[in-house]
Amino acid sequence: MMNIADEMAVNTMVAVRRSGNDPMSVSVITEWDEERLARAALSQVCGAGSLRLVALLAQWGAVETWHRVCAGDDGWATKATAVQPESIAVAAQQHGIRFVIPGDAEWLDALTVLETSAATVDGLGGLPVGLWVRGPLSLVDAAARAVAIVGARAATRYGEVVAQEFASDLADAGFAVVSGGAYGIDAAAHRGALGVGGVSVGVYAQGLDTAYPPGNRRLYEQLCAEQVVLSEAPPGVTPTRYSFLARNRLIAALAKGTIVVEAAVRSGARNTANWTGLLGRILMAVPGSVMSAASLTPNRLIRDGEAALVANAEDALALLADLGTFSETPFCAAARSFDLLTPEQRTVHEALPARGACDITELAIASSLAMPKLQAALTTLELLGLAVQVTDGWRVAR
């Protein structure tokens, strides 16, 4: 059985310090004790979102769980024989990646919901054994006020424009935009926030030493250089279908709400929407064309009452803001002048001829109003541009 403490030349705790003038930036020196090394090794062997691992950690703690995994006779034990925890630590530090575990200053309290909730999706769930983090921003500060924007990789032009505009406006309003860095809606959301100088958090399913997908390398490198990215996977680990599904619970948990822009019937965005609802977060969806397969999931989420319809960032802000801190403007057309009329004024307006004119006596008879009320109504109608006085009397304004 491997004794982790004996493997390490340095056995001290993690230190986190802020750097520069940016209150959100951090300079992290990660030094590795036995607990941290055990969690790093387990993250490589056991994969993300393992309910079995969650149960073992709750019973034995990280160090004893690692010893038991190494001493086992299953697939985890086989993988463990090839793992050297100290090599993972070295690889991480070579790429500027820090490993954050529960109890660290940079650990996200928002993830506690994954521990207290019994929610599972596709057999995955639970609190991460640790988070691999890269980038100059403090994860805690960056995600303190966050909204997730997710959707289809094969997005339409409509979806990409909507995602980018939502992200820009929400970033301007002080929200960090969280997404998964993929093609389509994810990339549009990240770029929308970055384009206005906002904060964006990337949540990935692979080791942070490589960009995924390769076509988004420039975006990934910008997030790493200017923002913050995170993953449950240690350096060198490639993404799998299950790591993507496990990753979605992190996106849902660390954001106050999730906006689904476009998504097909079976998609990662639908999985994130499921997690959002199960964790008690706010689920929103952007309606799309009934002719578009890409809008099928958001349209159904709205139809079934699972998600609130949001047509713009203001709609989302009204749902995300703390009670009493956002003045919501109703989503409706501007009121017409006619809508502002009293019943008496409407009666007079209806009595006015569209052609020709009628004098005030004829109007009094047609409207059944006393002369003072009739004159007051005509004055208001004239001020609103609904009536005009001509030589022969009054008529409807053209």
Walk me through the topology.
Elements: H1 4-7, E1 15-18, E2 26-29, H2 34-45, H3 51-60, H4 62-71, H5 75-80, H6 85-94, E3 97-100, H7 112-116, E4 120-121, E5 124-125, E6 131-134, H8 139-142, E7 146-150, H9 157-172, E8 176-179, H10 185-195, E9 200-204, H11 217-226, E10 228-231, H12 241-254, E11 257-260, H13 268-278, E12 282-285, H14 296-303, E13 308-309, H15 313-320, H16 343-351, H17 360-367, H18 371-383, E14 387-390, E15 393-396
Structure, described:
By secondary structure, the chain is α/β, with parallel strands linked by helices. It folds into 2 domains: 96-320, 3-Layer(aba) Sandwich (Rossmann fold), CATH 3.40.50; 337-396, Winged helix-like DNA-binding domain superfamily/Winged helix DNA-binding domain (Arc Repressor Mutant, subunit A). The chain is built from 18 helices and 15 strands. It has a 9-stranded mixed β-sheet, with helices on both faces. Strands 1-2 form a two-stranded antiparallel ribbon. It has a two-stranded antiparallel ribbon with strand order 4-5. Strand 14 (387-390) and strand 15 (393-396) form a beta hairpin. Helix 2 packs across helix 6 (85-94), helix 16 (343-351) packs across helix 17 (360-367) and helix 16 (343-351) packs across helix 18. Residues 1-19 and 329-335 have low confidence and may be disordered.
Shape: elongated
Largest sheet: 9 strands, mixed
CATH class of the largest domain: Alpha Beta
Mean pLDDT: 89
User: Could you name the ranges where pLDDT drops below 50 across 5 or more consecutive residues?
Assistant: 1-19, 329-335
Q: Provide the helix percentage.
A: 40-55%
Distance between the termini: 92 Å
With helices defined by DSSP (H or I, 4 residues minimum), what is the helix count?
18
CATH architecture of the largest domain: 3-Layer(aba) Sandwich
Trace the largest sheet across and list its strands: 3-6-10-9-8-7-11-12-13
What number of domains?
Answer: 2
Strand coverage percent: 5-15%
Number of strands: 15
